[in-house]
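Readers of this paper often ask what the protein records in our data store actually look like. The remainder of this section carries one protein's record, kept here as part of the documentation.

:::
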Amino acid sequence: MADQLKRNRISKLILRIASCVISAYAAVLIFAISLAAYAGGLAEWGRGNPYKETLLLGIFLSVSAIGIVAIQTNVDRSRKTALIVGALVGGMGSLALVSFAVGCLNPITRILDPSNAVEAIIFALATLVTILRTRHFLRMAWAQQRTHVN
């Protein structure tokens, strides 16, 4: 019984570390793309073109990358407001990950080679992990709401 409990804890720890590594990798890629969006938007703004869409895309991607990382934190004892904000930015991260995973898997826009396939798999796994953690945040916020009402 004790060995089984120890194996379960080790398995959960390994899965937790793997999900953090995958999510961090995806967040770094998305943040790098947000920096390119900022650079493009600022270059256009410097030429006199108010290119707000690119700057807004950069902000969305930056917040999404932060959300992907933030959603991996353990906030089981956090306040309801922190849980809701975490779920919101985690949801934004999930949306960004879904769009990148679909973009990587789209054979029309990308030539299918092994590096693109690995990238698509990482984005898909990070999407799954982020969505599951966001659902966990929402459940905790809902449980806190229900305990405050009762």
